[in-house]
Amino acid sequence: MYFNMSDAGSTIKTARRIFEVLEYFEEVQRPISLKEISQKFDYPTSSAAALLKSLVTLGYLVYDRYSRTYMPTMRIAQMGNWLKTGLFGESEVHELVDFVHAKTGELVNISTQSDIYAQYIHCIQSKNRLRFEVQPGEIRPLAISGIGRTILSAHTDVEIERLVRRINAGNPPEERIDLDSLMKVINGIRRDGYMFSKHVITQDAGVIAIPLPKRSFGRVLVLGVGGPVTRLEENEDHILASMREGIARYLSS
After folding, report:
1. Where exactly are the structural domains of the chain?
2. Could you tell me the CA-to-CA distances from 200 to 12, 100, 148, 205 in Å, in that order?
3. What is the pLDDT of residue 248?
4. Under 8 Å CB-to-CB from 223, ≥6 apart: which residues?
5. Which of 119, 122, 102 lies closest to 110, judged by CA?
6. DSSP label at 128?
7. What CATH fold (topology level) applies to the domain 5-78?
């Protein structure tokens, strides 16, 4: 089969635009016009019209001729229904996050591995005035961030070495990961059962992270509580106790 690289570039652009449009619907949560989409993303009007028409034809959007606006159909909502069970295992992990948030009042999140990155997939933001926010979908370096290293702690040494080689292959020499230094951190997480990462991605921000028992499809999930380092340090014992109590209550089976 002949594959043209220019066709690949066009396909990637189209795929990106589809998800940009769907994520914009999630952001604004209302009907959207062709003009708004075209202006928001600086798409040529003809390209935006063709994209939206295709999504209507495929059943992902519905077009209102009177208001000349588009809205997602229930097909979009239904596509993700299996994820709650597939990634989280029924509702236990959501209940765990709610429990830890109620106990601590801090940012509580669930993250998992996405190739050579750690990615947040569920978050409840802190209600404190001084806080640091993360959003589902955001990624962090797997071998540098606190949640990433906590994810790695659930891998075998051989798997970690393989991942580090892949990470280093794409990094300039000054940014390459020293495996021996990383393994000292990993073994500390394995010994203590958690990691307290401070000032790594954002100055003055930290995260206390615990790997969860493996869920469906063998995916590693990490429970994290984030916030200003000083506040996490002051409440470290309480936060850890709350996280461990929640894990025992909701994931002991």
Report:
1. 5-78, 81-251
2. 33, 23, 11, 8
3. 95
4. 96, 97, 100, 108, 109, 110, 209, 210, 211, 212, 243, 246, 247
5. 122
6. S
7. Arc Repressor Mutant, subunit A (1.10.10)
Helices 157-169, 179-192: inter-axial angle, 10-degree rounding: 140
The ranges of the chain with pLDDT < 50 are 1-8
Extract the tokens encoding 84.
């709650």
Q: Please write the tens of the pLDDT for every residue from 85-122.
A: 555 555 788 899 999 999 999 999 999 898 899 989 88
Helix axes 34-41, 5-28, angle to 10 degrees: 110
Fold agreement (5-78, 81-251): no
pTM of this structure:
0.71
Distance, CA of 248 to CA of 9 (rounded, Å): 48
d(CA 193, CA 175): 28
- The token pair at 245 is 């109590």
Map tokens 């220019």 to a residue. 6
- Return the residue matching tokens 């640091």: 132
What pLDDT does 4 receive? Answer: 41
Q: What is the assigned CATH class of domain 81-251?
A: alpha beta
- Tokens 């028409």 appear where? 53
Q: How far is CA 25 from CA 14, 53, 137, 228, in A?
A: 17, 16, 16, 32
| pLDDT for residue 136 | 84
